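Query structure, 94 tokens:
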């Protein structure tokens, strides 16, 4: 089972800005039909992955993560998926 972590302050800011908490975001990462790709917009900082999947609240979310050296998945941000991301999810290609 994957281990997850996140910054509590960042989660609060994310919840206020996007209305998504990181517990819900974590559930979207477990969607068996999720689609993922490297987040090239932030590749200069660290290797990040953008995943689109349905949460347990039945919302299609876009979740940005990075894996730590210890193998822990750090959730960086989460928001509702855009139309383009929804299309990628529905077609299974990103």
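Result returned for the query:
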């Amino acid at each position: 089972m994957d281990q997850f972590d996140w910054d509590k302050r960042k989660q609060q800011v994310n919840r206020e800005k996007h209305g998504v908490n990181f517990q819900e975001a974590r559930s979207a990462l477990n969607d068996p039909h999720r689609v993922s790709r490297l987040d090239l917009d932030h590749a200069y900082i660290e290797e990040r992955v953008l995943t689109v999947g349905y949460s347990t609240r039945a919302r299609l979310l876009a979740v940005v993560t990075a894996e730590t050296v210890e193998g822990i998945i750090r959730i960086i941000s989460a928001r509702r998926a855009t139309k383009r991301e929804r299309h990628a999810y529905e077609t299974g290609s990103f």
